[in-house]
Design goal:
Structural class: alpha/beta
CATH superfamily of the domain at 2-90 and 165-250: P-loop containing nucleotide triphosphate hydrolases
Largest sheet: 6 strands, mixed
CATH architecture of the domain at 2-90 and 165-250: 3-Layer(aba) Sandwich
Radius of gyration: 19 Å
Shape: globular
Number of helices: 10
Order of helices and strands: EEEHEEHEHHHHEHEHEEHH
Length: 255
């Protein structure tokens, strides 16, 4: 069963077609890799799914709802969470506070509950703290919970972002270049983490990544874009052997 249906999506910036008539589905509890050379339209597609860009035409159905035109905050409330290629943490907050901040869209007590310290607000605050600690434990960084985000190594900051996204209890987790800047050891740990996330939380994951080898290790399906068009879709071994995909990445052999 599909959690996301991208239906003939197009995105134009003036006369430039960034994404043209792309369709694909993301099945529930699957990891789907979205790959392609630089400028292929991957980030534009990601930003349309998460509401940061509005498509020129087409539909994006998420959990039965057409989300085109909805604000990112509303899409988050529907059960979508993302990380960013350029890490977006609050540098002067602790790791735990950063993770807790991701749950603001799920809270119900509002500002007056916080000011008056009502019983419901205190119960909600306790639950948020417990969820944050659980997520930090799951991604393996609870020992950093009290440290400021700005003082952490890059690889740990990546995990804080993932923990913050998981804390919202999403149906769909979108990872934008999660391996960027990681060393070989951290890359292996990331592969393990993505697979554990899928299994433990029964989550659906959409992954943009330049590291094609990493994608092939974690993805159930790969979608390939080139110049804003879909050129391949299917199982990792089939897609990566596709002549059009090979040509897109290494160029055409003129001999």
């Amino acid at each position: 069963m599909s959690l996301v249906e991208v239906d003939e999506i197009e995105l134009r910036f003036g006369g430039l077609v960034a994404v043209g008539d792309v369709s694909f589905q993301i099945e529930e509890k699957n990891v789907v890799g979205l790959i392609g050379p630089n400028g292929a339209g991957k980030t534009s597609m990601f930003n349309m799914i998460t509401g940061f860009y509005k498509p020129t035409k087409g539909k994006i159905i998420f959990s039965g709802t057409n989300i085109v035109g909805k604000k990112p905050s509303k899409i988050t409330q529907l059960g979508m969470a993302r990380t960013f290629q350029n890490i977006r943490l609050f540098p002067s907050l602790t790791v735990r506070e950063n993770v807790m901040s991701g749950m603001h869209s799920k809270t119900s007590q509002g500002i007056w509950g916080a000011v008056l310290r009502t019983a419901k607000q205190q119960k909600e605050e306790k639950e948020i703290l417990e969820i944050a600690n659980d997520c930090l434990s799951f991604v393996g960084i609870k020992k950093y919970a009290g440290r400021l985000a700005k003082n952490l190594p890059y690889g740990i900051q990546r995990r804080v972002e993932i923990a913050r996204a998981l804390a919202t209890k999403p149906k769909l987790l979108l990872l934008d270049e999660p391996a960027a800047g990681l060393n070989l050891s951290e890359r292996k740990e990331l592969i393990d983490l993505i697979l554990r996330i899928k299994e433990h939380f029964q989550l659906t994951v959409l992954l943009i990544e330049h590291d094609v080898g990493l994608v092939s290790e974690v993805a159930d399906k790969i979608v390939v874009l080139d110049y804003g068009r879909k050129i391949a879709e299917g199982l990792p071994n089939e897609v990566l052997a596709n002549p059009r995909v090979i040509e897109a990445y290494i160029g055409k052999d003129d001999d």
